[in-house]
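Problem 12. The chain below contains 347 residues. Write out its predicted structure in token notation.
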Amino acid sequence: MGRLGPDPRGGWQPVTTMRALLGGDGPAWVPREVEIPEPGAGQVRVAVRAAGLNRSDIYMMDGSYTPATKSGNAATFVPGLEYAGIIDALGTGVTGWSEGDRVMVSSLGGMAEYALADHRNLLPVPLGISWEEAAALPIGMGTEHDAVVSQAGLSQGDSVLFVGGTSGVGLAGIQIAKAFGAGKVIATTTSATKMGLPTTVGADVVVDTTTQDLTQTVLDETEGRGVDIVVDHVGGPGFSQLFGLTRIGGTVINIGRLAGPDTTINLDQLSFRRIHLIGTTFSVRTPEERAAVYAAVRDNVVPLIEKGLIRAKIDQVIAWENAPQALEILRTNRNAGKLVVKVSSVD
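Solution.
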């Protein structure tokens, strides 16, 4: 059915197309006019106001990542894995939500005027939170609460190391760890210009791994014991050193592989220190698993956002017409915090 738009001859007429960016047909996002999608069973249609960028957007363009929310085998797709806006249509079987509700969600398709989402993954946008900030929250909140609290089992007073602590999800994780009672939080960076960024969201210590010895610094900061939990967003060859800075019986959880998926580990070190090793990703989660993750975020994290204890760290908001260039900013690591595209100027 689309939506109604002004008719130059007077009155209103159905509008069936929308502005969107398309990926999968070259190295850059390309603006196109496409059909407005209709919600299926269990889906809502969101009139998108803003969309956040993530490292996974680059991986999708490179062909190395396929999100669980991508349907079909078409080569081209509407990018944007998290966004915020207003529900403007409901599919059959949707409960708990109404047209006009302000929502934020992790789902593919945010770089368009309208996008579809599973209603079970929706999060309410708290009062006082802008569309741009709301669009920068869902992936970081879902990923980090699931990893740090649900899987790693953060306890009151636990020390936590975030490897890749200046990434968008890393900054979210630091806030979640502190909000849920972590003790000392240590974050790593490879950029001298970003050294101060993790402390603005609660990190106690920041380590530049290009100039400092990570293992020695962590051991010094934990009186030789090692941290209780390591949250790794980087992977690659450096992953092998993480067991030696984790306490005996501690937990190492890998979320991202910014430095690549291949590493070599010392099984003696893993075994002798009795490390709990966890790997996690959202790309292969079932719809039911994703729904459970975001139900936990709704219950446990959204109230913290309402209280101002967790906020998005935004580097810049980018106009719609400049959205294709935003991907290059992310690709070249020129951002310090989240990049957000303003999809619509309507409030």
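Discussion. The two ends are 23 Å apart (CA to CA). Students who got a different answer should revisit the alignment rule from Section 12.3.
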